[in-house]
Amino acid sequence: MPSNKQLRQVVVVGAGVAGTMAAQTLRAEGYDGELTLVGAERYAAYHRPALSKKLLTGEVYRAGIDMAPQNEFEVRALRGVSAVGLDMASRTVQLREGADERTMPFDGLVIASGADVRPWPGGSVPDGVMPLRTVDDCLAIRSKLGRRTRVVVVGGGFIGTEVAASLRSLGLTVTLVSREDALLQSALGEEMGSCWTDLHRRHGVDVHLGVAVESLVGDGHVKAVRLSDGLKLKADLVLFGLGVEPATGWLRGSGIPVDKGVVCDATGAVEGVPGVVAAGDVARWWHPLYQEHLRIEHWDQASRQGVTVARTLLAGPGNAEEYDAVPYFWSDQYDVKLQLVGVPTGHDNVEVVEGSVREGEFVAAYGKNGRTIAVLSTIPGRVNDYRGVIADAAAFPPRLNAKADSTTST
Questions:
Q1: What region holds the FAD/NAD(P)-binding domain (predicted)?
Q2: From residue 98, how far is each of 79, 80, 386 by CA, in Å?
Q3: Model's pTM, two decimal places?
Q4: Are strands 283-287 and 336-342 parallel, antiparallel or unpaired?
């Protein structure tokens, strides 16, 4: 097992925000050995949240979403190269670039391979049916947009709702289809998710809930979408956001523990595998506050985990610090900024503790077993005042001050 002094060859698999932050932190905190950053995409790290927002609408150019390096650091960056295997006995990563394969040795490994978009079920699709996960996806979608383009968005999660909002802001005809009874239901619950259902309908999106896509209509190019309730929706473009799966296929047979993501302790160290850490969408970390393993697909989380795993490698076994920060997430849709601290999964209660849902400015708290586990707000920055409440597992509902006590009914 390499200690911090023995660490001389570090390979970072994944050149997104988690991998890039890990590499930057290693250099910033004194690591002077070999450092290789392996990225399947041909681009340097970029801000993925912009893909469904400003890059999609054309408000920013392609270069405008690149992550600006916090500092210049020496790294061997391999672009357009995929990790296809891992051998822990020889401590090597198998890489593929086109038809060429090679192995790369390591004594420290950062697994930050991210997640892969779930494909359209049923195999091949007509032209004009597209996902949104990468820069190339976004640019391809933009190339197909015209003034009269009729777009059907399939999936009522954050990607689907953000894409719908962005395209609606361009004046396009947008239909949004979700299997659930409210938009964002899996993330926020039905009660709070209904707020965003109403928001999209107010902005002219044709929202269909509780239905699935039965078939795609079109010979060569999509012309319509047929729903499970028999309704047929005309479409020039179908964009789908059906979620993602952690990119762990290259780890098969390696001995790395995978259970809905790479299983890590609270420091980002892969459980039972010395000298290997994982961060970002691929990783499922133990969270001391929630007392369970969590895989969180948030930009902020990926960035912070990247920093943490670099420090874990440098600290060596038994010396790393646990990461127990309260998770944070945001989503911009129309003129509303959704901000969420904590993890509402499994909540058994939700209550508006400030403001009014009817007026569009509110704070809602999620409770579980009498404790506050998450807070959602449309008031910019207000969620920051509740971080301590969640970290301390305060009683539900939380009360910060007199303002919070004067709750207005929804």
A1: 9-306
A2: 11, 8, 49
A3: 0.93
A4: unpaired
The pLDDT tens digits for 88-106 are 999 999 999 999 999 999 9
Q: How many CB atoms are located within 10 Å of the residue 42 CB?
A: 11
Integer Cα distance of 58 and 142 in angstroms? 8
12/366 Cα distance (integer angstroms): 37
Q: How far apart are CA 397 and CA 407, in angstroms?
A: 11
Contacts of residue 115, Cβ cutoff 8 Å, sequence gap at least 6: 244, 245, 246, 247, 281, 282, 297
Q: Is the dihedral of CA 188, 190, 194, 200 positive or negative?
A: positive
Distances (CA, A) of 91 to 255, 273, 350: 12, 11, 48
85 bridge partner residues? 94
> Which residues of the chain fall short of a pLDDT of 50?
1-2, 402-410
Pairing of strands 76-79, 82-87: unpaired
Identify the pLDDT of residue 63.
Answer: 86
Is the omega angle on the peptide bond into residue 397 within 30 degrees of 0, that is, cis? yes
Distances (CA, A) of 147 to 101, 128, 157, 239, 347: 45, 16, 25, 17, 43
Q: Rounded to an integer, what distance in angstroms lies between the CA atom of residue 283 and that of residue 265?
A: 10
| Alpha-carbon distances of 220 from 86, 116, 225, 349, rounded to whole Å | 40, 26, 14, 48
Find the angle CA(376)-CA(335)-CA(180) to the nearest 5 degrees: 55
- Amino acid identity, residue 100? D
Q: List domains and CATH numbers for the chain.
A: 9-116+244-315 (3.50.50.60), 119-240 (3.50.50.60), 335-405 (3.30.390.30)
d(C-alpha 381, C-alpha 252), whole Å = 42
Round to whole Å and give the CA distance between 348 and 358: 23
The rounded distance, in Å, linking the Cα atoms of 279 and 19 is 7
Residues 6+ apart with CB under 8 A from 365: 350, 351, 353, 372, 374, 375, 376, 386, 396, 397, 398
What residue type is 366 in one-letter code? Y
Kindly compute the dihedral angle of the four CA atoms of residues 176, 179, 182, 183, in this order, to the nearest 10 degrees. Answer: -50
